[in-house]
């Protein structure tokens, strides 16, 4: 597991996105980036989180912030997920998990006594210079978007 901390330079990546696009982190220098990793499209917590970021999009835009969610789902699944929920954020596809691992978000999880590897629901706030400002791990969806937005607004005051 990669041990990233606030103050570290965010690991660079380029990922395919929904809609046949591509997200290159380096092309967003000068903008604040909220990068969040989530387990799976169309599951209750992940849907609630994506809808929450969509509902707050105007506030993130006002704070000069772009939001990208990343999971191992295919771009086709992302397209369906976005269309079904009218999502207004970028969804990146990391099918081999390289980017997820580089941020330390591929972790050992336990469910009903069974251990397995999975995505830690985690969020990284990256400033316009490419530096990690804040990290939230083992995120609980309720109230999380508000905390992230507050941090973005404080960073861009």
Strand-helix topology:
Blueprint: E1 14-16, E2 22-24, E3 32-37, H1 44-55, H2 57-62, E4 65-71, H3 75-85, E5 90-93, H4 98-102, E6 106-111, E7 114-119, E8 122-126, E9 132-136, H5 144-155
Low-pLDDT stretches are none
What is the CATH topology descriptor? Answer: Glutaredoxin
How many distinct beta strands? 9
Intertermini distance: 33 Å
User: What is the radius of gyration?
Assistant: 15 Å
Kindly estimate the percentage of residues that lie in beta strands according to DSSP.
25-35%
How does this structure look, described?
The chain has helices at 44-55, 57-62, 75-85, 98-102, 144-155; strands at 14-16, 22-24, 32-37, 65-71, 90-93, 106-111, 114-119, 122-126, 132-136. It has 157 residues and is an alpha/beta fold. It has one domain (14-155): 3-Layer(aba) Sandwich (Glutaredoxin). The strands form 3 sheets. It has a 5-stranded mixed β-sheet. Strand 8 and strand 9 (132-136) form a beta hairpin. The chain is globular, with a radius of gyration of 15 Å.
Give me some keywords for this one.
two-stranded antiparallel ribbon; 9 strands; alpha/beta; 157 residues; 5 helices
Q: What is this entry, summarized?
A:
The chain is α/β, with parallel strands linked by helices and about 160 residues long. It has helices spanning about 45-55, 55-60, 75-85, 100, 145-155, and strands spanning about 15, 20-25, 30-35, 65-70, 90-95, 105-110, 115-120, 120-125, 130-135. Helix 3 (about 75-85) links the parallel strand 4 and strand 5 (about 90-95).
């Amino acid at each position: 597991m990669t041990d990233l901390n606030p103050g570290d330079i965010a690991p660079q990546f380029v990922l395919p996105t929904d809609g046949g696009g591509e997200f290159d982190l380096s092309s967003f220098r000068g903008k604040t980036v909220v990068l969040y990793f989530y387990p799976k499209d169309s599951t209750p917590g992940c849907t609630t989180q994506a809808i929450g970021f969509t509902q707050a999009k105007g506030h993130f835009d006002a704070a000069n912030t772009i939001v990208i969610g990343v999971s191992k789902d295919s771009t086709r699944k992302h397209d369906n997920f976005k269309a079904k929920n009218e999502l207004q954020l970028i969804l990146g596809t990391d099918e081999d998990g390289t980017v997820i691992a580089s941020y330390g978000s591929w972790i050992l999880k336990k469910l009903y006594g069974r251990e397995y590897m999975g995505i830690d629901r985690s969020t990284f706030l990256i400033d316009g210079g490419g530096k990690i400002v804040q990290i939230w791990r083992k995120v609980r969806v309720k109230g999380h978007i508000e905390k992230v937005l507050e941090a973005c607004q404080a960073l861009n005051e």
